[in-house]
Specification:
Helix 7 packs across helix 11, helix 9 packs across helix 12 and helix 11 crosses helix 12. The protein is about 40% helix and about 20% strand. The strands form 2 sheets. A 7-stranded parallel beta sheet has the order 3-2-1-4-5-6-7, sandwiched between helices. Strands 10-9-8-11-12-13 form a 6-stranded parallel beta sheet, with helices on both faces. The longest helix is centred in the N-terminal third of the chain and has 18 residues. By secondary structure, the protein is of the alpha/beta class. The radius of gyration is 21 Å and the shape is elongated. It contains 13 helices and 13 strands.
């Protein structure tokens, strides 16, 4: 069975790109996966794993480029005898819907986020894979999608991909962080509206005044980081391919999101046994059971976030126990083998 994955942008640290990579790198049985994107920085990563990947470098907001994308895909489907198109963005969901009038293909679309508008042109696939229960409810309530069309398909991780190749001391030296510093981590987009990085920075400023031995390391990209005040002892670096070198040095990781459908960051933190603190929203609270495998704080409540950071700082044994429990949960419920088995069953039914 030949399956074509379509996404707007394939990037090294993008959660959706990581999912496509994991599905395509180890095809099961007679399945062959093809991957096509408009742009991104992950081409080498995909090709190094012998994944058949193509980058079109087209603008999805240009009518001329949309026509060129459509024509290219029609020929690509015919040439490679594509049987299933798996879209990972609603732009390609609509493109594949249009292609279905010209090509004999089956269609499926993954939905990883809460999007709005363009109802007439959104989610035409007969099967939608919702990243979590909150995404499923959004599809039902906002887009009026029938429940029988939606399958909850959570993000997942492959333990074989969770590697770090540098010891803690070396990484801290490179970052000019004292070896004995208490290090709070953040991994993700530098977004105020969705990821709430302003909440974390405000909380850390107060936390750092009380605990001068603390640092905050933020790993990611996004222009919002230039729009807000940065306290002292905050280190900011762009997204890295081997992100787990940084998870490995965090004493805790904070995800202060205002909205977060089903963050891969939580799963990666769990697999690295990094104590986790997150806002009590959407997909974060679907994964984290407060005070058992992590800590939750009320969305936008800076003081409550500081309290949770203080708790992990003072109770390191408790923090490590939570991290161990999260590791076991992720290993059991959000693993590569379980996820790909479910996905292959869906492909077969299509």
């Amino acid at each position: 069975m030949n399956i074509l994955h379509l996404h707007t942008s394939l990037n090294i640290t993008c959660g959706i790109s990581k999912t496509i990579y994991l599905v395509a790198k180890n095809p099961e049985g007679m399945h062959k996966h093809f991957v096509l994107a408009l742009n991104g920085d992950a081409e080498k990563k995909f090709k190094d794993s012998n994944i058949d990947v193509t980058f079109l470098y087209r603008n999805r907001y240009s009518i001329i480029d949309i026509i060129k994308i459509f024509k290219f895909l029609k020929l690509y489907i015919e040439k490679n005898k594509i049987e299933i198109i798996h879209s990972h963005h609603r732009f390609f969901d609509f493109i594949s819907y249009t292609l279905s009038f010209f090509c004999k293909i089956k269609r499926i679309t993954s939905v990883q986020s809460f999007v709005y508008g363009k109802k007439l042109f959104s989610y035409k696939s007969p099967i939608l894979l919702a990243a979590g229960e909150s995404v499923k409810q959004h599809l039902k309530n906002y887009f009026n999608i029938k429940e029988e069309k939606i399958i909850v398909f959570n993000n997942f991780v492959d333990i074989n991909e969770i590697t770090h190749n540098a010891d803690k001391k070396t990484v801290k030296i490179e970052l000019n962080i004292p070896e004995n510093a208490y290090l709070v981590g953040y991994v993700g987009r530098f977004s105020v509206k969705e990821k709430g990085i302003d909440i974390l920075l405000n909380a850390f400023k107060i936390f750092n005044e009380k605990h001068p031995c603390s640092y905050l390391l933020m790993v990611g990209d996004g222009e919002d980081i230039n729009k807000i005040s940065i306290p002292k002892d905050v280190k900011i670096i762009s997204s890295k391919e081997n992100i787990f070198n940084y998870y490995n040095i965090f004493d805790c990781l904070v995800l202060p999101s205002r909205v977060d459908p089903f963050p891969l960051t939580v799963l990666e933190a769990g697999m690295m046994k990094t104590p986790f603190i997150g806002a009590d929203v959407n997909g974060i609270s679907e994964i984290i059971c407060g005070n058992i495998d992590g800590l939750l704080f009320e969305k936008e409540n800076v003081n409550m976030l500081i309290e949770k950071m203080e708790l992990f700082f003072k109770e390191k044994e408790f923090a490590n126990k939570c991290a161990e429990n999260l590791y076991r949960k992720i290993l059991s419920n959000y693993n590569y083998e379980k996820a790909t088995r479910l996905l292959n069953n869906i492909y077969e039914k299509l």
